[in-house]
Fold each of these.
Amino acid sequence: MASADEIFREMMRAGEKAFGESWDAVSNYAPAEFRKMAIQITEIAQNVAKYKLDKSEGYSPATGKLLMKMQRTAAESVLVATTQLNLIAVQKAMDAMVKVLRKTFKGLVAKIL
Amino acid sequence: MRALLLAGALLLGGCPGPLVSPYDEAIDKGIVQFYDGFVYFMRDVADNAGKPEGTYEANLQRYNVLETRLDVLILRASSHSLGTGCKLEAKVYEKVSKLLESNLPAGITAQGDAAGDANGCNTRLLELVKQQLGLIREIHAKTDKCGTPPLSCLRPATVASAVKIASQSIKAVAVVEAAKRN
């Protein structure tokens, strides 16, 4: 049977690998979405300014206000999704560790449970 | 070794359940179908801005169809939830705000229900898409006007902004389901 240290290292490797892959998704996703938000907020301000100069261009301040409300909602979506992506990463890491444990202890763990 | 076995037993049997709701193909495919319908509708309504067929009244039924599609997905997602809402971890907010420093949009705070469950977040993500659609509906019905005499409409500039913003909320649903699938 493998030593406790070996099993521990194998579990950690499996967890780290699974978590690492998922964390990439989180760290790529959130900053990109917040960058988009910054651009979109600027666009809203520019369109309201255009409308003030020429009513046939851009959109009214009232529309701009509702679009800003939409942007705040989108920010909440990104934060909730980021939370979920983190939890998925943790879940995958746990699943990978459990897989190692099941493989290592086979019937022994089944007896305990 | 005994400690490791105990830790293993706890890991295998001691957890209160999965941290996230399981992958749902119906939500994964449903949100893509919703996006297709939504973008097509937005482009069409922008092309008709200032014409009778571009008014809110002429497009009321199309809003209802899109909203019903979302209601079906929300109902499906809520079947996994305890109905206690979505818990948004303070740590996530902290991490994101640190990353963005002063670029974080105003009005964004750590939100969520302290008693919420992780499964409730799927429902919340879909509800946020529905809120976006509701705000577009409000713009169409009340604030955007085109032509003479002024008719209710969605201006091309409004559509451009609204599609980009709503896409973020729609993408949030899709990204989470894709992560569960992979």
Note: The longest helix of chain A spans residues 4-53.
Amino acid sequence: MNAAAILHPLAALLLAPLLPGVINRVKARMAGREGPPLLQLYYDLWKLLRKGAVYSRTTTWVFRAGPRLNFVCLLVALLILPLGRVPAAVSFAGDLVLLAYLLGLARFATVAAALDTGSSFEGMGASREVQFALFTEPALLIGMAALAHASGDLSLTGIYADWPAALMPAMALLGSGFFILFLAENCRIPVDDPATHLELTMIHEVMVLDHGNVDYAFILWGSALKLWVVGALLVGLFPAAATGCPLLDLAVGFLWLVVLAILTGLVESVMARVRLLRVPQLLVGAGVLSTLGLLLTFW
Amino acid sequence: MSATRAVVVGAGIGGLAAAAALARHVDDVVLLERDRLPEAPVARPGVPQGRHVHGLLGGGFDAFAQLLPGLAEALDDAGAVRFRVGLESRLELPGQAPFPLRDAGWDNFSMSRPLFEHVVRGLVPVVTQLAGTDAALLAATRVPAVLSGLFLVLIAGALAMAWVRRRLLAARSVRETVTWDCGYAAPAPSMQYTGASFVQPLTHGAQAILQAQSRQQDPVGIFPAAVSRTAEVPDVARRVFFDPLFRWVGAGLGWFRWVQEGRVHFYVLYIVVALLALLGWALWS
């Protein structure tokens, strides 16, 4: 582990709340609204961290531990995750499987906390979340398998060490597949609408309905981290040369993440959520794109 | 013929001898060694008793000289001490008189073990040396260590956040109320999500395989009295595979039921017949 590599998790921790801000600014600009300020999430976190708590009598420690387990899983994921050409703090052969399972454990924490409330709304959100995970996880693993095969390396750092320009068609397919995954994993339009306020149509938002105070701060912060984590998988596919200076590489990676956030904002501005029953088809589509990418790397 | 390769584990004297012997028969000999092999004739960590003076026995030297022509000259050049056996060396066994000093008629060498290894290593032909394999071994054992480390970080992080939460909430009010359920304030166990409802989207998606069944009594009239819905996912493996299999096996074995008469003298008769059959078989073979 080198000292420069720990910069990435630190930067993610501090800068991730900017990404939802960017998305919201783009959406507001596209809709001609004033919109919330760029730093809105920082204000929200500051406010929530100083609030008292109200808990449901139905809930147990599972409900209280859920948000922080989710948060810590994403934090550990950041330790094994490279951003663009910035190598990860820790890297070993097969760490991409660990990443998939860390995301799975994070999801499990959120789902378990949601079910702990006993509310049927939250149960419904949890049920949908795991249903969609059933489709996103294979798509993610197949996409990672394609990248591992193309680069001949089984660690995330090795996979994203250079930008394999020779694999352009496969990269385009994997990139589009990962972008759908990025939107689905982060509960963005067209899979879920983060701005909706009708419980029956929500997925992520409905799972965290009963959380408040510090826990909710961890949840919001965790969502921003998840944007960063899943975004980093996509950013590695974007063209960028390793400069040799970790800070410069990190800055380039972050710029790509901001571009990704702007792209997400544009997608959210121009299209509506697809019908709930159509979401699996969209996610299977992402899996098909990943599979085609894998086939192309064997070509 | 395709290229052949032999792998020798350990680059000590024995490994080097094996590599020298194998090198005549295969295209490539790969020598794996845990230590990084030193350039100079110096001791390395993996060799016990590597620091004191050694001499070779005559047969051993002959065997090595056969495998590696030019060994004696190479040892001379490297600075090994050539001595006349019997004349320039003296053997004393405990409790016995020393061997008499008499020319045995052949030369031998005295040197440190690292020197001998160094010279032999220089003579062994066409060998790919993968020294410092310790590093590779470490890398292999590194993954579980790193995984454990990351898991510890996960647990420590969760505990640290629990502590932060406790500190932040210490000075605030923490109250309890009901779960928010669209204003419905009397939650009952029957209202919450069950396992069946949790996996309903999936069972619905896999209807073709799982064949989930549901019965429903719709509300009738303005003031419906009884309304119900029952849904179940019967065990597919049992319904499609195990139940028919066991039914079939049971029916097949039913054919032998007449054997079980229920009268003791019949069972004694079976035993007698079986014993006679065994006796006949024993006599015949």
Note: The longest strand of chain B covers residues 107-112.
